[in-house]
Automatic annotation (TrEMBL):
Protein name: Glyoxylase-like metal-dependent hydrolase (Beta-lactamase superfamily II)
Occurrences of domain Metallo-beta-lactamase (ranges): 44-260
Pfam families recorded: Lactamase_B
SUPFAM superfamilies, sorted: Metallo-hydrolase/oxidoreductase
GO molecular function: hydrolase activity
Species per Swiss-Prot/TrEMBL record: Nocardioides aurantiacus
């Protein structure tokens, strides 16, 4: 019999134990398989293996790198399976730690890869940049400039992998998901729910009969998901994200199966925490503009970051860039709500609106 780890609500040996190699049975026939990430602040991504009479369904696929592939195959072996048992990939969104290995394996194994249709512009942007030889990542540069954080661009480029992902790892999926719909998968009825915000094409998959929510990066158990971190720019990712959180609250309260972090008991409890976080962030951003900040970067410098409430200067360049992008998203939503006035330009500025 393959080794299996009993389900648990929190890691038994510390906060980071969820990322350790191994297999965790989170429900009958459903297993969490953490796969390593080589350069992200996050150490691993959770891929979920769903057993069925016709073989395996995988929710997300990991990053297409040799170490991930080895851990993936070892994990399946522990469950008494092989890659040839995989029948389909349901991918929550197009980020490389979720999509690229699914796409590569799907091609090798001849099994379909499913992705939300909202990711079409993002995949097109990846291909357009590569075909244009865009080694400077012009889209990211422009967004940093919009946030008033253009000075981070050189450090951002230093973080780029020396060997970028092959374009075939970003080939189109076999099936595009359109709208919310029910899927018959591995003898289960999964509700595919479009949840834009983290990326415009993000989906979660709800197994209401088993009380499980495969949440991708939409709802994470211990960290706040980044907003609008995608190749194709979206003006209002936070508006979309908050609306998507409301859709999760409209589902039953389910066991949360996140893409990063440990499994936890209540999807609703975590959604309420995320909603509260963004309410606080919106209020803090508005107060920073009242105090004289004008750009997203200036506002980000006035806000505390992480649970330790660090100043932005204490963060590395990757997290600084994410902070700038997320602050811009909060300011854009405040402007949409008419709580702030928006002044367009290469660097977007914000001010209190004139009343009367």
């Amino acid at each position: 019999m393959p080794d299996r780890v009993a389900p648990r609500d929190l890691p038994s040996t510390g906060r980071g134990a969820w990322a350790e190699p191994g297999v965790e049975e989170v429900a009958p026939g459903v297993h969490r398989l953490p796969l390593p990430l080589p350069m992200d602040g996050l150490r691993a991504v959770n891929v979920y293996v769903v057993e069925g009479e016709d073989g395996l369904t995988l929710v997300d696929g990991g990053w297409a790198i040799p170490t991930s592939r080895q851990v993936f195959e070892d994990g399946l072996r522990r469950l008494g399976h092989a890659p040839s048992d995989v029948r389909r990939f349901l991918v929550t969104h197009m980020h490389r730690d979720h999509y690229t290995q699914a796409r590569v394996l799907g091609t090798e194994l001849g099994c379909p890869v499913v992705l939300g249709s909202g990711e079409r512009p993002n995949l097109a942007s990846v291909h357009a940049d590569a075909e244009a030889g865009d080694t400077r990542q012009a889209g990211t540069h422009a967004r940093l400039r919009s946030a008033g954080a253009e000075h981070l661009h050189e450090a951002w480029l230093e973080l780029a992998p020396r060997r970028p992902d092959a374009l075939d790892a970003y080939a189109a999926p076999d099936t595009w998901l359109e709208h919310d719909q029910d899927l018959d998968v591995a003898g289960r009825r999964l509700r595919a729910v479009a949840t834009p915000g983290h990326t415009r094409g993000h989906y979660v998959f709800a197994d209401e009969a088993a009380s499980l929510l495969f949440a991708g990066d939409h709802v994470l158990s211990t960290i706040t998901p980044s907003i609008g971190f995608e190749p194709a720019y979206v003006r209002q990712p936070l508006r979309d994200y908050l609306s998507s959180l409301a859709k999760v609250l409209a589902l039953p309260d389910l066991t949360l199966l996140p893409a990063h972090g440990p499994v936890t008991a209540s999807s609703h409890a975590r959604v309420h925490e995320l909603l509260e976080h963004h309410d606080v962030r919106l209020a803090q951003s508005l107060e920073a503009v009242r105090a004289g900040a004008r750009t997203a970067w200036e506002v980000a410098c006035a806000l505390p970051w992480t649970r330790r409430e660090r100043h932005i200067d204490e963060l590395g360049p990757f997290d600084q860039a994410l902070a700038a992008f997320e602050t811009l998203a909060h300011l854009e939503l405040l402007a949409l709500r008419a709580d702030l006035a928006r002044v367009a330009g290469d660097t977007v500025q914000f001010a209190l609106p004139r009343r009367g």
